[in-house]
Design goal:
Elements: E1 2-6, H1 10-23, E2 27-32, E3 36-41, E4 54-63, E5 66-75, H2 81-98, H3 102-127, H4 131-144
Antiparallel strand pairs: 1-5, 2-3, 3-4, 4-5
Length: 147
C-alpha cells in the first residue's frame, strides 16, 4: 500500500487520476466516483514487473491539505499460487521416488525445476508489484505541479 496527498480537491484529484489511468491503458473494473477506482493494468504474458497483469486500486479521502490517496496493487497470476505450491510438493515426492525408478526421476526433476522457476518469477513480480502504482503517483504529482 502506498499513500500520497495531493494539493487538489477530491473532484479534481479523481479526474486527474482517472485520466492518467486511462492514458496508460488501464481497464476500469470498478468505480465509485470521487471515492475509489479499481483498474486492471498490464498483460497476462508479461514478466516485467511494471507491465505484469495486475489489479490496482485507489481510494480517495478529503484532507485539510487536499486529497489523500491510498493505492494498492496485486498481481493477477494465471495459476493460483496454492496450485503451484502443491505441484512443487508432488514433483518433489515423485523425484524422491524416482531416485529408485530412473524414468520417473528425470521427468519429475525437469517438472520440479520448471515449477520452481514459475514460483520464483511470481515472487519476483510480487515484490515489485508497486512499480506502476509509484509511477501513477509521480505522474499525478507532475500534473498537479508539485515536485
Amino acid at each position: 500500500m502506498i499513500e500520497k496527498t495531493v494539493a487538489l480537491d477530491v473532484q479534481k484529484a479523481y479526474e486527474e487520476l482517472r485520466s492518467i489511468l486511462l492514458e496508460n491503458n488501464c481497464r476500469i473494473i470498478m468505480e465509485e466516483p470521487l471515492k475509489s477506482i479499481t483498474v486492471e493494468h498490464g498483460y497476462p504474458s508479461s514478466m516485467l514487473p511494471k507491465d505484469t497483469w495486475k489489479k490496482v486500486s485507489f481510494y480517495l479521502f478529503p484532507d485539510s491539505t487536499g486529497t489523500r490517496i491510498i493505492g494498492s496493487s496485486s498481481i493477477i497470476f494465471p495459476i493460483p499460487i496454492s496450485i503451484i505450491t502443491r505441484l512443487i510438493i508432488a514433483l518433489l515426492v515423485l523425484f524422491t521416488i524416482g531416485i529408485f525408478i530412473s524414468e520417473i526421476g528425470g521427468a519429475a526433476l525437469v517438472g520440479l525445476i520448471a515449477t520452481i522457476i514459475i514460483y520464483e518469477n511470481y515472487y519476483r513480480l510480487h515484490r515489485k508489484r508497486n512499480l506502476f502504482l509509484e509511477e501513477v503517483f509521480r505522474w499525478l504529482e507532475l500534473k498537479t505541479g508539485k515536485n
